[in-house]
Amino acid sequence: MAGDDTENLFPGFEALWIDTPAGRWFARAGGSPDAPPLLLLHGFPQTHAMWHRLAPTLAKTHRVICLDLKGYGWSDAPVGTGDHSTYAKRTLGREIVDLMERIGHVRFAMAGHDRGARVAYRVALDAPGRVERLALLDIVPTTIQWQRIAAKPGANPHWPFLAKPAPEPEEAIGRDPDAYYEGLLRDWTSKHDLSSFAPGALYLYRQSWNVPERIHAMCEDYRAGGPEGPDRAADQADLAAGETLAMPVLVLASRDYLDKDKPESALAVWQRTFAPKATGASIAGGHFLAEENPDETLAALMAFLRG
């Protein structure tokens, strides 16, 4: 277990180790067990620690569960299969629904950032009866993301790089994981440095991304979302069928990353695809909303959760 600096990121929260048929998962949970449950899912290349500036306040009104996604943090990191279904967002969504039921939550609100948001919207599409409210932080649907990359080659180069067949990206990253992942953190922040990240959170991120099995798991996550992967296929099938999100949806987009120099805002994308009734807000700063601009992000989430 990490030292005092990381423990203090979530004052009053308990550590949960949750055993399921899909493996062992780690989470931090805080707030009254009788409060409405809120599941927070982190993004790449982070862990549950990204929520540390929001979770204590959210726990005043909700039972907050900050989960390490499969392959990240302290949750299990299975090798996966040739079809990448182990890390498909549909697979992860089913596993997370089962996990939440095991800890006593049949229905819950969800907020996800980046990769966690991709899992969250897949849960909401596949199991709408489970999700009370859905907040999506700084993404557009996976199939739209690939359309943008095709229209502007060179945009988001980590997507095609990480989706390459094993072991090419694993070996390249493994030569110096800190240099690769910290370079992404810098590139995607508005300040282009690491000053927005708490030392304790960075410690946990480094601890995770320096493990070869987790480097592989993160690549598998992107392969599942690759051009021919199951995540994109699931999006395309649902769009063709006219499927939409039934619950209230909040879209938060960064001004200096996701919505910067784009002809269409993230909110507009969601409104014309899966969430025609979505509401949204533009958050000042870069991609890491919860760490770069926790005040605006928290205010928007709390207003949304209050309904």
UniProtKB/TrEMBL annotation:
InterPro entries membership: AB_hydrolase_1 (IPR000073), AB_hydrolase_fold (IPR029058)
Residues covered by the AB hydrolase-1 domain: 36-294
Name of the protein: Haloacetate dehalogenase
Native species: Methylobacterium haplocladii
